[in-house]
Amino acid sequence: MNQAMTTELPRPSPKSSDPAELAEEVLYCLTYRIGKNASVATRHDWLTAAIQVVRDRVIERWIESTKAAYDTKAKRVYYLSMEFLIGRLMRDAFSNIGMLEDMRKALATLGVDIETIAALEPDAALGNGGLGRLAACFMESMATVNVPAHGYGIRYVHGLFRQEFSDGWQVELPETWLDHGNPWEFERRERSIEIGFGGTVQSVTDAKGRLERHVWKPNHSVIAVAYDTPVVGWRGARVNTLRLWSALPVDPIMLAAFNAGDHIGALRESNMAEALTRVLYPADSHIEGQELRLRQEYFFSAASLQDIIHRHLGQYGELLSLPDKAAIHMNDTHPAIAVAELMRLLMDVHGHDFDTAWDISKRTFAYTNHTLLPEALESWPVTVFERLLPRHMQIVYAINAQVLHEARAKEGFTDAHIRSISLIGEDGERRVRMGNLAFAASHSINGVSALHTDLMKQTVFHDLHMLYPDRINNKTNGITPRRWMMQANPGLTSLVREAIGDGFLDDIEKISELDKFADDAAFREKFAAVKRANKERMATLAHERTGAWIDPSAMFDIQIKRIHEYKRQLLNILEAVALYDQIRSNPDKDWVPRVKLFGGKAAPSYHNAKLIIKLANDVSRAINGDPSVRGLLKVVFMPNYNVSMAEVMVPSADLSEQISTAGLEASGTGNMKFALNGAITIGTLDGANVEIKECVGDDNIVIFGLTAEEVAERRAGGYEPRAIIEGSPELSQALSAISSGVFSPDDPNRYRDLIDGLYNHDWFMVAADFDAFCKAQREVDQLWRNSPQWLSKAIRNTARMAFFSSDRTIRQYAREIWNVPV
């Protein structure tokens, strides 16, 4: 006993940041929380121990932040999003709480390299692309600028798929990010909420036969269980909460069925519950997938609304003050069913009449639109909606009657306007329009770039804007500079600190002081050295993941984003094919060495997007294996693009491809990340590119192609892509090579339909913009040859990107939408 006591590890002070004491704390955690001796601990054990030591400090501030919001009765923001693409949290939390370097030293004394174990932390597979990454940046910025907030979403077991390539084809595999547990999350079993589906609605009347209320009696329920993750703001000033819901069955094993021998039937309820939170965005090309998607959206929205009301009633005892104390923000249309759920709770559970409930809802909700693609504004078949959510269907009809009554009372509204405004689409199959529901129920509807907001008023919400002209406003997106410069690009961060001091770390506006170094030869040389180191890191990653060798001295030309025809990866591939032909035809020309790097996932049911990935890989194989190219051009598609990969690719980029069809990209945030890290943008005047151009200056960005107005005019005027293709020798040759099977000798017809689509309709204006894109790329080559000039422009991009901080965006949301002091 005495011997054991003498060898027991002393419990160190949880307040210390001294590396020696931190090392003791890590060992204590390893022994008594994980149950391992240091001599047998795995790298995952060290990772968990290091996280838990820092997490203790985070928890203290988390509790303090929550208590302060309660004591001061501060207004809270509730951010509802189907996606939170948070990536790895270790470096984010360690850095924001100011312990990254101390923990690095502490682990080093124990023989553990922090970078090695940090690489083991999985990316939380909770999002698909920009929508989810924006939500993650916003959560970090809300904590940074001291906005009390909860994020609400789904704790997907697998989330978005893990992407692998089989002979160049995308293969979707489960993303097992929870295999080793999640040391950042806390299960809150006490916050379990029963969520119903289906069933019937009964009317309850008083003694005189007057309607008192409706009672929804679902025929199937699941339990939503909360999992909380702390979100640390910069310097740890505030820690907010990301609450994700997991689904459990009400009755895990139906014992009577099991005992009767129906083993499959006994587990049916369990399987149905698990399906709700198993994957992000189930395929909705069939009715079963559509139903599961709607169930997911209602599940997390209803759990979140009931949680919000529970918290509000616990503090204030009534709901009339809800708009004054809670701002509920819907990130796109996915949570729009929350409108009907709040109305149901206010009327059916808490006894308010329709007018009062509608007034409370409109003053509480706000909605961010993220798309101008009509098909992306969700709608659900009335039959599916009514079968799953019969009471909510009644409420949607009631809201619709109110909105249409307002429209008919307004001068100048025709039947066509009424049809457009209606929450029920009557063209063909009757459908519930979730975008219209979100708009009607929100006091604020914002776009995410100046161009996008203007186009919203002109296109998808034109008639609703006529009815409610004061609701639409702009809040240009932003990114957190902590994640996307200070952590992802420590070399550049150190260089900027050396040049202008530390002020920009707390106030990103001060990075503008870097502008005066753009023409300083010594600084340019240091800037180039940082970029080179980042490119060498990227080259190593490319070789590890694909086997390709790429030259860090070549121009790194990068396009990383969701694979979609409007984002026009196809345009980029066609330019690569045309450049390949030119290099082979003109071997004596002074070509600029270039590496085209791609990354992104295609939705499993999106045939053309998956075909574009295959084409990129086929083109890559042909070009990279052709000795006549002499390494002057390489094409590499990085598999399984995610946040962690972006943190390597973005700092390495020389050229940022932002080439969507003008008028279709709402904003983009990748464009902001690249420019902040010293890449020059080549892009159309689309989304936030317009504002980036204004901030960095016309001379520091390369713009090409049709504007949004010109795209609309071409479509309205009978655009004929065939004539354009036949008038462009380079494009004709590239399309002919692809269509005839030059890049697919095993299947010469593989790309024929894809190429025929460009000849016959070309909705995304690939042919229309091709020659302008090629011309712009040759201008980029010319600029690259003048290294001092290129570096000056790259430095000015970094120096002039402060406007695109998500801190600025969140302050605007807080002041102009949520009415929260900042």
Automatic annotation (TrEMBL):
Q: What InterPro entries does the annotation carry?
A: Glycg_phsphrylas, Glyco_trans_35, Pyridoxal_P_attach_site
Q: Does the keyword Coiled coil apply?
A: no
Residues bearing N6-(pyridoxal phosphate)lysine?
Answer: 673
Catalysed conversion reaction: [(1->4)-alpha-D-glucosyl](n) + phosphate = [(1->4)-alpha-D-glucosyl](n-1) + alpha-D-glucose 1-phosphate
Q: Which SUPFAM superfamilies match?
A: UDP-Glycosyltransferase/glycogen phosphorylase
Entry keyword set: Allosteric enzyme, Carbohydrate metabolism, Cytoplasm, Glycosyltransferase, Pyridoxal phosphate, Transferase
Sorted alphabetically, the Gene Ontology cellular component annotations on this record are: cytoplasm
Q: A GO BP term, please?
A: glycogen catabolic process
Report the enzyme's class at the first EC level: transferase
Q: Which cofactor does it need?
A: pyridoxal 5'-phosphate
Q: What is its EC number?
A: 2.4.1.1
Pfam families in the record = Phosphorylase
Source domain of life is Bacteria
Question: Where does the record say this protein resides?
Answer: Cytoplasm
GO MF terms listed in the record are:
glycogen phosphorylase activity; pyridoxal phosphate binding
| NCBIfam families, A to Z | P_ylase (TIGR02093)
What is the role of this chain? Allosteric enzyme that catalyzes the rate-limiting step in glycogen catabolism, the phosphorolytic cleavage of glycogen to produce glucose-1-phosphate, and plays a central role in maintaining cellular and organismal glucose homeostasis. Phosphorylase is an important allosteric enzyme in carbohydrate metabolism. Enzymes from different sources differ in their regulatory mechanisms and in their natural substrates. However, all known phosphorylases share catalytic and structural properties.
Family in the record: Belongs to the glycogen phosphorylase family.
For this entry, the protein name equals Alpha-1,4 glucan phosphorylase
